[in-house]
Design brief:
Elements: H1 6-18, E1 23-27, E2 35-42, E3 51-53, E4 58-72, E5 78-84, E6 92-95, E7 100-116, E8 124-126
Antiparallel strand pairs: 1-2, 2-7, 3-8, 4-5, 4-6, 4-7
Length: 128
């Protein structure tokens, strides 16, 4: 069993601060999984390129912190922005397959994210 508690969150934040990307994930899958399930600790200043997942929705649940999920059109223009903050009751979102998106991290945050398909085989791409 994996326990998701303050100790784990604190350890992820510590690792994210040391990571040049200012983020750290924690894989929640078992070896037989065909999907992606992970925790992702995100620090302000992390750069998450505009990207999409052509073969899967992406479910994002914010466990702690504050972020903006940002959606874009095919040319990289912002179309929508969703403020996630669990203290306000804004817990997460489901980003439809094929929608360009990114995240703006407003304070140290941890998200649970889930997608179909194995990492690297889920049709993900970055807006060039």
């Amino acid at each position: 069993m994996i326990e998701i508690n303050r100790k784990l969150i604190s350890e992820l934040f510590d690792k994210a601060l040391l990571n040049p990307r200012f983020r750290q994930n924690y894989d929640l899958r078992n070896p037989d999984d065909n999907g992606q399930r992970m925790l992702n600790a995100l620090m302000p200043g992390t750069d998450v390129p505009i990207h999409r997942h052509t073969q899967s929705n992406e479910t994002v649940i914010l466990l702690c912190g504050k972020i903006n999920e940002i959606l874009y059109d095919d040319t990289g223009n912002e179309t929508e922005r969703f403020h996630l903050d669990p203290t306000l009751g804004n817990f997460g979102c489901v980003i439809p397959a094929g929608v360009w998106h990114s995240v703006d991290v407003l304070e140290p945050s941890v998200i649970f994210e889930a997608k179909d398909g194995k990492y690297g085989e889920d049709g993900s791409e970055i807006l060039g």
